[in-house]
Amino acid sequence: MPKRPTYDQLRQRVKELETQANEMRREGEERENLVEKLQQALAQMEILRGILPICSSCKKIREDNGSWTEIEPYIASHSQARFSHSICPDCEEELYPEYSRRRDAAADGRRSSNERQTPQELTFIERRSGRDRRSDWGRHRTGLRG
C-alpha cells in the first residue's frame, strides 16, 4: 500500500501548483500582449499594400474619398515614415548642370583658375584642413579668397 502524504507535504504541493498556475497566467498575459502588438503592427503594414492610384505627372495619390493628396503627406499619414529631401545626381545634373560640373571638377582637382569655390566646397575644405569657418566669413561674403 502506498504511503499517504502528510498535511505539510500536501500544503507544499499546493503552493508549488499555485506558483506554476501564476506563472502560466503571467505567460499567457504576455503572449496575449505580444499577439496584440503583432496584430497592430500587421494592421499598420497593410495600410500601404496594394495598388496606389498615382498621377503620372504630378505624383499625387488618389485617396479612397476621391481627393488627390501629395505623396509625402499621404505616406506620412498612412505609415510611420518621415521624409528628408535632397537631390539625386541625375536631377542635379539636369537642374543645376553648372554646379554639378564644378563639383565634379573640384573633386577631381581640375578647377580652372577663374572658377570660384562654392560655399559647400569651402566648408568641406575648411573642415578637412581644420580651419575655423567663422574666421574667413568676411572674406567669403566679399568674394575674396585667401
Descriptive overview:
By secondary structure, this protein is mainly alpha-helical. It folds into four domains: about 45 residues; about 35 residues, no CATH class; about 30 residues, no CATH class; about 30 residues, no CATH class. The chain is about 60% helix and about 5% strand. It has six helices and two strands; from the N terminus they run αββααααα. The protein has a two-stranded antiparallel ribbon. α3 crosses α4. The chain is elongated and about 100 Å long.
Counting structural domains, the number is 4
Q: What portion of residues belong to β-strands?
A: under 5%
What general outline do the C-alpha atoms trace? Answer: elongated
- The main sheet orders its strands as 1-2
List keywords for this structure.
4 domains; mainly alpha; two-stranded antiparallel ribbon; elongated; disordered C terminus
What's this model, at a glance?
The protein has helices at 7-46, 71-78, 89-95, 97-108, 119-129, 137-142; strands at 61-62, 68-69. With 146 residues, the chain is mainly alpha-helical.
